[in-house]
Design a protein that fits this description.
The structure is a single chain. With about 170 residues, this protein is an alpha/beta fold. The protein contains 6 helices and 8 strands. Helix 1 links the parallel strand 1 and strand 2. About 20% of the residues are buried.
Length: about 170
Amino acid sequence: FWELCVCDDASPAWVAEYLKGQSQENSRIHYCVSNERLGIAGTMNRAGELAGGEYVGFLDHDDVLSPMALHYIVESVQDGLADVVYSDEDYLDPLGHRTRPNLKPDWSPELLTGCMYWGHFLVIAHRILDRIGWFRSEYDGAQDYDLALRITDESMVVRHVPRVLYHWRQH
């Protein structure tokens, strides 16, 4: 079971109308509108408030998941609960061609202290987010790295899915 949780942070009217319609047609899509600009962290936190599952996966608004992304994430937690799951990624050029694969290493606490290599597709256990706190607005632009460092202050089960599951759109 999956849910798509979207917080609209001042989209054009046609986008808001489309998302509202999709959420009315599909009970797995949860949609809310912010009455004020919340920034990256605030918007992701509002969307996260809508999530009811055991895990929360974070996506940018204009990127693409592999058709099998959710399958491989679920497969990775079949051997026992994970606190964090991340995957490899690549980029989509303006014509939609996949380029620049980013094949990441397995979990390395030392590497994470020097760079946010987890990137996307990043999936975190809901219970962990509730315990350590979600995104902090004062770190907008680096909010995912701040969260990763706070998460790994404790001993965590971190899994890497060595497959390209996330495609960033190049602009």
